[in-house]
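Bench notes, afternoon.
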Amino acid sequence: MTPPAPPRPTQLGPLLARRRLDRGWSQQRAAVELCAAAGVPTLSRHEISRWERQRRVPGGFWLGWLAVVLDVPLVALAEAAAATRRAGSTRATGPGRAAVAGARPSGPTGPGRTTRGSGARTMTTG
């Protein structure tokens, strides 16, 4: 008889949604609480939705504040974020987010871009 398979690591989206709902919060309320805790006024309910649907994975900054606001150990959130990235569930790329397989790099190294001297981006033609 083979031993049972180890439990799959929890992915981040369902973990965030479960903790938010356990508190009785809407996505809007979660965004307000995160903004107040972090001192950053720009997080919206739309970003909370993206995280919960695993369209994006929050980076270290937001994982830290999610741990505080949702009262979840940071290591649990970091492990769930890593599991989500490994599973390839995200579709967006950028800082703190998993890259999509086969996606082109963005930023100064992306298509049609070069860097000069101070790092300013310029478009190339031709």
